[in-house]
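Q: Given only this backbone (153 positions), what sequence would you predict?
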């Protein structure tokens, strides 16, 4: 399947929160690096991730556009939204815009990672300012501890 078609199938599977369909697009040892749940390695972990996602929300929508592909990687701008069903945030609509990065091996996704302004998600959930600060500090530590970030510090 050409990479552009794989990305279209990925977007359709994401929008329907179909873990089996998402996992089938990945290499057996592929990595789906989720903004909330972190890296999920292997098809079984990816399927389980989408089981958890399905349980935590409803009314999912996903769009991927402005996709640029090479022979082994692609980037695309995405919009993703859902209504959370989780805890005290239940019933809140959340909309996210970001960029997804895909690496491919043998026509399967070997790595997917997204970048988005996660702070906007926390505000849309109505999270308390003190909790937002704790979460953003944790994400900052994670970002700054990345070995590739060290030369920028």
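A: Predicted residues:
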């Amino acid at each position: 399947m050409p990479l552009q078609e794989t990305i279209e199938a990925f977007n359709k599977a994401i929008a329907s929160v179909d873990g089996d369909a998402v996992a089938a697009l990945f290499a057996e040892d592929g990595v789906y690096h989720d903004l909330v749940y972190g890296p999920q390695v292997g098809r079984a972990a990816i399927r389980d991730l989408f089981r958890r996602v399905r349980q935590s929300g409803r009314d999912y929508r996903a769009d991927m556009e402005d996709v640029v592909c090479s022979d082994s990687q692609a980037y695309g701008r995405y919009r993703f939204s859902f209504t959370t069903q989780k805890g005290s945030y239940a019933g809140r609509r959340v909309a996210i815009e970001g960029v997804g990065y895909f690496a491919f091996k043998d026509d399967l996704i070997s790595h997917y990672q997204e970048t988005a302004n996660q702070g906007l998600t926390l505000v849309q959930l109505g999270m308390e300012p003190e909790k937002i600060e704790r979460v953003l500090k944790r994400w900052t530590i994670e970002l700054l501890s990345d070995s590739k970030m060290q030369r920028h510090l």
